[in-house]
Design brief:
The protein is of the alpha+beta class and 82 residues long. Helix content is 48%, strand content 21%.
Length: 82
């Protein structure tokens, strides 16, 4: 009787012990998306266009300094993602 129970326990525990610890596909997709976002952010910081703006009016509201800026050329739209 003990031998039958040990054999059945071995059969039940076998698949659980044999499967490798592989992360789920959702976890892998999140990791790939995060890496892609970091690469996009790193690429965007180097090619960011600067605006040519000048401060036309400046005033203080409470503890905050507010500036009204007037830009000579509007910023260009970033290239569309594919």
């Amino acid at each position: 009787m003990k031998a039958v129970l040990l054999a059945m326990l071995g059969l039940l525990a076998g698949p659980a012990l044999a499967t490798p610890a592989v992360p789920s596909s959702a976890w892998l997709e999140r990791q790939q998306a995060a890496a892609a976002d970091e690469a996009d952010a790193a690429a965007a910081t180097g090619t960011k266009a600067r605006q040519r703006c000048r401060v036309v009016k400046q005033w203080k509201v409470g503890g905050t300094v507010v500036k009204h800026r007037q830009c000579d050329d509007p910023p260009k739209k970033p290239p569309a993602k594919v």
